[in-house]
Amino acid sequence: MPLCDGRSDGPGHHVNCPERRADSTVHLRQGDLMLCEDCNDYRFPSLSASETAKSRRKANAGKKSASVTEPGPSSADPVPVTVAAGKDAPVDVCGDIVSDSNVNAGAKVIVNELLSYACYHRNGCRQPALVSVICGFYTPSEITAAKRSLVELFHDNLKDTVLATERRSSSSRPAHEAELEDVTGMLDLLDTKDLLNTVTFAAVNLGRVPGYAPEETNLCSIIERHAKLDTVVTDLTKRVFTTDQVVTRIESKVDEIHVNMHNRKNSDNMQHGGSGTTTARRDMHARDQNVVVFGVRETSDWWKQLSDV
To answer: Whose C-alpha in 23, 165, 184, 247 is 20 to 30 A from the C-alpha of 132?
Structure first.
């Protein structure tokens, strides 16, 4: 029997297995380590719940597992993945524990974008609108794959109905439109028998899910939104027109201010030019009678000293 590799709190902090186990409880675990149950829970606490669920499923052979389809190259070629069922905590396709509100215990989770969209909107819109959106968005092969998936899941309940019949194209309508009506009819039939609760359809590739509800494509809804948009545009147009008028008045005031400033500048230049000439003449005439006085200090009261003299 292999010896348990023990525990570790990080690089250089290795601790031997406290119980020195070397029995059948030691298995190859994550990271190619030979660990017992206790050391595995110590090293990888986030995985302990899923490991416990696996141990419970192995111990109780009466519990059934449900299959989950994970998309491969296309939704028509799913890859099955097993998750916990019964009272065990459900596990998603990545191995993480998820809450019971996301996945019903014991339910089959099927990855199919078309059926996920149809089941979500089927009770909140008219069936013609739902059929129109699905038929316009999804390809005929996706519609056929969705019908085949329903027939395989509920074969015992649908094998004796005309809904499970393979459709062919006719002069009135193509085959995928008839199969789409069969899909909606199957969902209604399974809902009346309370069988839709046993399966959950999930969408993984969000690019293959319409980003709008079926009723948003209704002509009346489009007209209503167009009327509201028209009202908003009209209001914005009035506001823009009012703003243009205000801007025009401001521009006229600015132009008027520029003209006034220019006229005042010209008037000031003319006044300064005339007074400068007269003053120069007066200065030239007054200099002929200048008197030079010596012995008087240049103070603020020089005139008083001169008058005293």
So the answer is: 165
Closest CA to 201 of 298, 117, 294: 117
Same domain, 243 and 209: no
Q: Please choose, from the candidates 109, 76, 119, 111, the residue with its C-alpha nearest in 3D space to the C-alpha of residue 214.
A: 119
Judge whether residue 118 has pLDDT over 80. yes
Type of residue at 175: A
Per-position b or e across 208-226, b if 16+ CB within 10 A of its CB = bebeebbeebbeeeeeeee
CB 157 within 8 A of CB 195: yes
Mean pLDDT score of the chain, rounded to an integer? Answer: 74
Q: Which residues contact 135 (CB under 8 A, 6 or more apart)?
A: 143, 176, 177, 180
Total number of residues shown for the chain: 309
**Last residue in a domain, options 166, 183, 217:** 217
SS3 of 91, please? strand
The pLDDT of residue 95: 43
Q: How far apart are CA 34 and CA 76, in angstroms?
A: 40
Backbone angles phi and psi of 120, in degrees to 5: -75, -40
Angle, CA of 143, 174 and 157, to the nearest 5°: 50
Write the DSSP symbol of residue 75. T
